Amino acid sequence: MSAEATNPGAHSRRRGRPRIDLRRLGRAALLGPAGRDRLPDAIGHVADAHRAHHPEADLAILHKAYVLAESSHRGQFRKSGEPYITHPLAVTLILAELGAETTTLTASLLHDTVEDTEVTLDQVRAEFGAEVCYLVDGVTKLEKVDYGAAAEPETFRKMLVATGNDVRVMSIKLADRLHNMRTLGVMRPEKQARIAKVTRDVLIPLAERLGVQALKTELEDLVFAILHPEEYERTRALIAENATAWDALDAIAENFRTVLREAGIAAEVLIRPRHFVSVHRIRIKRGELRGTEFGRLLVLVGEDADCYGVLGELHTCFTPVISEFKDFIAAPKFNLYQSLHTAVAGPEGAVAEVLIRTHQMHKVAEAGVIALGNPYVPVEGAEPADGERADPTRPGWLSRLLDWQESTPDPDTFWSSLRAELAQDREITVFRADGGTLGLPAGASCVDAAYAQYGEEAHACIGARVNGRLATLSTVLCDGDTVHLLLAQDAASGPSPDWLDHARTPAARIAITSWIAAHPEGTKIPAAAPRRPAPVTADRPAAANAVVDLPDATVRLAGCCTPVPPDAVTGFAVRGGTVTVHREECPAVVRMKSLDREPIPVTWGDSAECRVTLIAESFGRPRLLADLTEAIAAQGAAIVSATVEPPTQQRVRHTYTLQLPDSAGLPALMRAMRDVPGVYDVSRAQHPAATS
Questions:
Q1: pTM over 0.90
Q2: How many angstroms separate the CA atoms of 396 and 336, rounded?
Q3: Catalytic residue numbers?
Q4: What pLDDT was estimated at residue 90?
Q5: What is the mean predicted confidence (pLDDT) over 28-55?
């Protein structure tokens, strides 16, 4: 779900048993103390909530798990004075309300038994099966007496590895942390702050990545109240002062219902109040808030096509704010989220933000991976998967995390790297040269792509082509880019310390740091790394192979673009009666015309001989200059001048001015130069020249 609280209830049309509104309970707890009756039959409420999502669920195993949990925790109390069994019950109720399936709820009831009671994993496996045992083991903390200060990071490592095999482990952990945060007030302030910081840095980003927005937004509010009490109180007062803000949204919502009813679209229109952190962020971004900015409108429909039908009706009948439109249905977010986002102006000019989605999209938006149930239950009619179980809920970021954590035995390095990885709040997908894809955090560079694709073999990476163009390893990638990574032939090649400035993923940083530590002498500069030689020049021909209709005019081919037949060309008169000839696409032509210089028509003469300047982009290696010179000579071209720039980031730029016996041989010459190993691009020179 997006970052707001649930509908206040005025427009709810649900039938049957009144649902326990987790968001409203959390919201009430934040707004101030309120009397809450003790549940008369806690496991009965869990069963009712579970049946609301899974009417055919077998409840016998839940009752069995509850009996074991209650008897095991009997005599234990929380710091608040409540019987300990209230905690696993509350965690299970949170998951039941989000639609978790029976196995998850069973493990949730038992999640603290192995850690805090005499119950063993073998007993859990014998009575409830291997899946429940795996989930319970996944969320069981490591003993501080065994791990000392490393207990917390190593516990999270254990949970994340378990999550890699079954994401339901993290679902239970998130619900567990939510209930602990709700009851954190009995702790000392310094312990509250420590737990809140870990929740902010690790658990909230994990909830976001798994799409469990219902838990994420309430965790954000609880952390906000602990770590920023003054801003929190200011935000709470602002919400209280604008208690009538819903009137404006109510009026717009009623207009929406009328428009959609007349269009024959069955839709439910709800008001979604923003939660505290969302209001705080909007206030910082926009300053003083208007009534409609304290919430958003949610339109729920039956089918995907209806979403676009609603969008069309709203944009037709109301004034749309085009800059606010986003289509997360055609391009879902990496955390499974799908919805159309737009904003429209009401009759009196008030702007309302609108979310449009199907009921199923809404379920996934609210509960994320929890809404998908057990990812290992085969879909009816689907082909059985061969080999390892395919988990549709295991996204790219989790696979990356599991890969790099294996290379990080040090708990402190793992803990800091985990926080850095989770601090990336957006994901991009880039395409490999072989047609595969790489999932990377936003802001990732070619360095990150290299290590994501090749692992430690990326030490030999010397460059990349991005969308067909040669690029440095520091190039930042964008969503949808195609990346062809180039590896050196020399297996002894290694990364430069400069790569750390461009690496965003822990996998890349850890691999680079490890290699540098193991090779303190660094990477050797290639023996034949070229230096800038003195230009070699030949006699310039007396006349260019171009004709202008001016008596006694001297014709000169421009050095900035070195035109050759049959290029489209134009000329400009300069001092001394000389006409300089440029290719028509040369930047100098645009500059001359902007100075009101009159172009002069130019045609090519009968002579086939021509001169051209070519730029070769390559990576440094021994004998590269000799091989390029040999390739040029083999095509019958004479080198008029040559310049080789000093290498930067292992890239070398060669500039050759060449005399060709016939311009028809230019394409073959450029192909021959590109075929030289280490050369990745050859192009005609086209750089600004000084104004004549």
A1: no
A2: 12
A3: 115-116
A4: 92
A5: 64
